[in-house]
Amino acid sequence: MELYTIWFFFLAVAVSLLAYWLNQQKAFQQPETANNTETETDAENEKTHSRNARLPNGKDAQDFRNIYFGVYTLVLAADWLQGPYFYSLYRYAHGLPESTVALLFITGFVAAAASASFVGSLADRYGRRNACFAYCAIYSASCASVLAYGRLEILVLGRALGGLSSTLLYSVFEAWMVAEHNARNLGSVVPLSSMFSWSTTLSGVVAIASGVFGEALVSLTGSQTSPFMMAIVCLGAAGVGMHNFWNENYGQAATNTHREDEEARAPLLSQLEPNIDLRKLSILTLVTTVFEGSMYLFVFLWTPTLEAAREAATKITPTLQWNLPLGLIFSAFMCAMMLGSMLVSVLNLRYRSHGAVALLIDTLAIAASALFIPVLASNETYIFWSFAVFEACVGMYYPSIGKMKSSMIHDGVRAKVYAWMRLPLNAFVVVALMLNKDGNENRRTIFQVAGALLLGTAFVARRYLS
Fold first, then answer.
1. Which residues of 177-191 are buried (b: 16+ CB within 10 A; e: fewer)?
2. Angle between helices 128-144 and 58-82 (to 10 degrees)
3. In the chain, what is the straight-line distance between the N-terminal and C-terminal CA atoms, in Å?
4. Neighbour-count burial of 37, counting CB atoms closer than 10 A to its CB (0-12 exposed, 13-18 middle, 19+ buried)
5. 232/21 Cα distance (integer angstroms)
6. pLDDT tens across 101-142, in order?
7. With contact defined as beta carbons under 8 Å apart, do 377 and 453 qualify?
8. In the predicted model, is pLDDT for residue 255 greater than 50?
9. Under DSSP, is residue 409 helix (H, G, I), strand (E, B) or coil?
10. Span 201-216, pLDDT tens digits
11. Following CA atoms 306, 150, 139, 336 in sequence, which dihedral angle do they give, to the nearest 10 degrees?
């Protein structure tokens, strides 16, 4: 049996056990929370009843969850099915050098960054459901582009469409859900926080399942294009579901345009909180650039790094299977990321004094150590588990950085500040991938530099954020 199968099941069982324990802990705290909020809920229900002849009930909430998450599961599956195979498909099936594969990744990354500036406003103007339809069509075209063997220009166009699709996926679907939730007045029976929680959990579960299913597809068909074709099927089914069950909704009325234009022209610094610490904001930008930049580089490099380690292992053990179960490895990494996210919840339950800053510093240091392992070791097992630890750090990072940014930047300029914070991140990833060259030594150098930057950032954060 492939060792990755055992490791995946080990991580999956760990996720299941920890999830069960967390649910039990939350169940113990639920009665107290319910008692504290019962009066507020009753008052809100009375206000809602005065505005509406009929209050929404549990069936309304269940119907809304079904029509949204039924479609959302399909679009997530379409996205996650392909993830493990991009590098391998371009590198070996298309026969492209690693530097060209890096340029394809840059194309998708730049397209996603550029489209973020206009996708939201277009969706608000022409309809969120229409934007979701556009996602299904555009991403289907991106998936079909991998069949264009020997046509580099088609592959480049496909990656550009993929970058645009990523922006649509992580913006317009959520926008439609929030607007429809408000239009149906479901806040009293299914809070938005509950919908977001379900979305986060569903994304992790679908990612794990998609990796396993994608690996089964590749084993059955013998082709790494099969997950891309199955993604098109998922997107088509999602489009049918939206056509049959979703209403159209739009953004804010044009009456707000003048005020928003004035805010957009105002200097960014003048819109920040008066007591904001600009030095701390700069440090957070540094943290975002280094950690998330290292994460994007990891996404590109984990496949060739493990393949190089497997190739070395087959020279020692000729009976070892050369082809890696990429879908299974991807699912294992997603389990590790969920474990990291759950660990934050455990720390919040058990050690409330362990603040976001301390957790962020610890995460940076652990992530740095994990990226040094592929530099120092060539053993496949060590490299896999170092990558799993790094993925766990990704799961720990987002709750910590999110809490810190939300406390520092107010809602009125949050999107604008976040966009500015991503500029150095985009530049970091593009430059790093453009400098990428073929060969394992070059990959080790990238891991070494990324690990050193993470460690240095941890010291800076400890000095100025603590």
1. bebbbeebebebbbe
2. 30
3. 47
4. exposed
5. 37
6. 999 999 998 898 888 778 888 888 888 899 999 999 999 999
7. no
8. no
9. coil
10. 888 899 999 999 999 9
11. 0
